[in-house]
Design goal:
Order of helices and strands of chain A: HEHEHEHEEHEHEHEHEHEHEEH
Structural class of chain B: mainly alpha
Number of helices of chain A: 11
Oligomer: heterodimer
Radius of gyration of chain A: 22 Å
Strand content of chain A: 15-25%
CATH superfamily of the largest domain in chain A: Response regulator
Number of domains of chain A: 2
Order of helices and strands of chain B: HHHHHHHHHHHHH
Largest interface: A-B, 50 and 60 residues
Number of helices of chain B: 13
Distance between the termini of chain B: 15 Å
Shape of chain A: elongated
CATH class of the largest domain in chain A: Alpha Beta
Distance between the termini of chain A: 48 Å
Largest sheet of chain B: none
Shape of chain B: globular
CATH architecture of the largest domain in chain A: 3-Layer(aba) Sandwich
Structural class of chain A: alpha/beta
Strand order of the largest sheet of chain A: 2-1-3-4-5-11
Helix content of chain A: 40-55%
CATH topology of the largest domain in chain A: Rossmann fold
Number of strands of chain A: 12
Helix content of chain B: over 70%
């Protein structure tokens, strides 16, 4: 019995140390500051570059305005159920406000209502939420992003050609808007562009997008243009194009940015990237929340804009800041 | 003999129970969240968050004690939630929608059981296949979208503050408690329950002793499927939409809960109470880490450590017993 008991104790001490070790830093940070607002910023996921840029913007605002932020997404990327859990848990913790990028325009309605009931105000960023139970909506006009992509594609192919539109994921509102903007503009303004593929979903990871693109390229090797509506689908498709020696030959317009995509733009493998301004989104989300908490009025809807990056304009300061957001604040 | 098994059962539960106490104790002593962690409102939300995994774990405990595994559990949950949403969206009465959802789960489980016994393949392979089949069906039926079913009383089943307030907890939590007790009784006091243990310990011997192993295994998987179906209904209730991409990888959480609670993957061991404790250890950890604002990877590492520790403790105990 004795060695057994010893092992129990060793294990629990170990677990305890691990937990205590993780907690130490936060405690130290929290000590010394008395009444500072703590604001939870809840992204859809944590691994995409896009969310890191939002994080950087939010952290910048927090630093300037002297508030704390808790940065916490669902444990599994893009898991609606887990995002609900995160919202419930930060309500339980009792934060001053929540800045949320809802994974679903409907499933997150109830947790947000619950927050407002507990007198915790909510600002929605990035993707829409049904109903009106929040203070403000700070986001890209995604439809406009799709329109911009379609125009670029039309220019690149001079209005004639066979193209793919790869969709991102079932039920994702922001990318669905981009896809709709692209599709409607192509049908209206560029009847010469023939859509070989328009209802295939890339899925949530680079890997699934890669596989889909590989399969599609195998089936339609004569494709002339491709549009992808977000970072992971763009990168997955890029890898497939590079792998099958088609990169540069197929006109390729993507969405969002990451170091690899910037390089591809420079190499001529990508012919256009539609950019949002995630840093601004994170920044405005947190600053509007703070303004509200300090009793000021804030706007109900804010558009953070869409921009087209090409090989030609990628070195202008404005586009460069969007292509490679300054994340140094997160280190 | 009987006394010894009782003592052993007690010791088997002790480790996970201590683990749960430790997790709760650690978070309630954190200055940041101390005052909030043990508040009724938070305990209620942890209980509600546990329902989906817990219902899955009830069935999984049975399967694992019987020496099997059910990898299709999470896909089955997604499929059942989609079916429920589809039925309600098509204008069927909500109760019928629930029934269809639960029965869909049961049907998938039943098919698992029949395929495993008739094709004589290991459960790992059959349920791995079923994992893909059920997920694919869910996406097909939902037409690659989420289904926005109209709101109904079904969506109140998982509401943290239940409509008749004397219920105190969400109806889903009560369902979880009732079924946990029912399953514990089934496992401990019925002939079928003893047969499950016998099959898991040594299937050949059980068959020679006259246990109708094939029939028992089909029932085990069908029951597990029914619980997944119910869990799917709860998932729909919580999300208010039928989402075919929900719960990816959740089968591993369910299996982890059973294993942390003392279930043995070689079969013949496990308990409902243990599995429920396993579910709550993970739920409290997730809740506590979020409240502390710790990054997700910390959570994942801690849960990984706990799984390895729980199983190795189990091994040590076995070696001593042998």
């Amino acid at each position: 019995m004795i060695p057994q008991a010893k092992k129990f104790i060793i294990f629990f001490l170990f677990a305890g140390l691990l937990l205590a070790g993780c907690g130490g830093k936060d405690q130290a940070a929290a000590a010394g500051e008395a009444k500072v607002f703590t604001i939870a910023v809840i992204p859809k996921g944590m691994t995409h570059e896009f969310w890191k840029a939002i994080h950087a913007g939010a952290a910048q605002a927090a630093k300037e305005l002297g508030v704390n932020i808790i940065w916490k997404g669902p444990q599994k990327e893009d898991d609606r159920a887990q995002q609900i859990t995160v919202v419930e848990d930060v309500i339980s913790r009792g934060v001053a406000g929540v800045v949320l990028a809802p994974l679903d325009d409907r499933a997150l309605v109830r947790p947000v209502q619950e927050a407002m009931r507990e007198k915790i105000p909510v600002v929605i960023i990035d993707s829409g939420l049904q109903g009106k139970d929040y203070l403000s909506f700070v986001a890209t006009d995604n439809y406009q992003g799709g329109v911009l992509a379609a125009k670029r594609m039309g220019d690149l192919l001079q209005g004639q050609g066979r193209i793919f539109m790869i969709r991102y994921q079932e039920g994702s509102a922001s990318t669905a808007e981009r896809e709709r903007g692209f599709l409607e503009t192509v049908t209206k303004e560029f009847p010469g562009l023939k859509l070989l593929v328009k209802d295939q979903y890339a899925g949530s990871t680079t890997e699934t997008a890669y596989q889909l693109a590989e399969n599609l390229l195998g089936r339609f090797p004569d494709v002339e243009g491709i549009f992808c509506p977000n970072e992971s689908s763009t990168f997955g498709t890029l890898r497939a194009l590079q792998e099958s020696q088609l990169a540069g030959k197929v006109k390729f317009v993507g969405f969002d940015s990451s170091p690899k995509l910037v390089q591809a733009l420079r190499d001529g493998h990508l012919h256009g990237l539609i950019l949002q301004n995630p840093v601004k989104m994170g920044y405005l989300g947190v600053s509007y929340m703070v303004q509200y908490l300090r009793g000021q009025k804030i706007p109900e809807r804010v558009d953070t804009g869409v921009y087209l990056a090409t090989k030609e304009n990628m070195d202008t300061p404005e586009i460069r800041a969007l292509l490679s957001p300054d994340l140094s604040i997160l280190d | 003999m009987k006394r010894k098994t009782k003592l052993q059962a007690f010791i088997n539960l002790l480790a996970p129970f201590l683990g749960l106490i430790l997790v709760i104790a650690i978070f309630s002593s954190m200055p940041d969240v101390q005052s909030r962690f043990l508040r009724i409102a938070n305990l209620k939300s942890v209980a509600t968050q546990s329902v989906i995994v817990a219902l899955g774990a009830l069935g999984m405990t049975l399967v694992i004690i019987g020496g099997g595994i059910d990898l299709s559990a999470a896909s089955n949950i997604a499929l059942s939630s989609v079916i429920t949403a589809y039925a309600i969206n098509a204008g069927l009465p909500p109760l019928l929608g629930i029934l269809l959802g639960v029965l869909t789960g049961g049907l998938i489980g039943f098919m698992n059981g029949v395929l495993i016994t008739e094709l004589r393949l290991v459960p790992f392979i059959i349920t791995l296949g079923m994992m893909g089949i059920a997920r694919g069906l869910a996406k097909w039926i939902a037409n690659n979208q989420k289904i926005d079913a109209p709101l109904s009383w079904v969506n109140d089943l998982m509401a943290k503050s239940p409509r008749p307030s004397w219920l105190l907890l969400a109806p889903g939590v009560w369902l979880m408690i009732v079924f946990a007790v029912a399953m514990a009784v089934l496992l401990r006091y019925t002939v079928f329950g003893r047969h499950v243990f016998a099959i898991g310990s040594n299937e050949a011997t059980a068959r020679l002793c006259g246990v109708r192993t094939k029939r028992a295994k089909v029932i085990i998987y069908a029951l597990s499927g029914l619980f997944c179906g119910l869990s799917g209904v709860m998932e729909f209730s919580r999300l208010t939409v039928g989402d075919p991409t929900v719960a990816v990888g959740l089968e591993l959480d369910i299996i982890a809960a059973v294993v942390i609670g003392g279930g043995s993957l070689i079969g013949g061991e496990g308990s409902i109470l243990g599995s429920m404790i396993g579910v709550f250890i993970m739920a409290f950890l997730r809740n506590g880490c979020t409240m502390m604002g710790w990054p997700n990877y910390i959570q994942e590492i801690i849960i990984g450590v706990i799984i390895v520790a729980a199983v190795s403790l189990d091994q040590i105990r076995h070696r001593r017993a042998a």
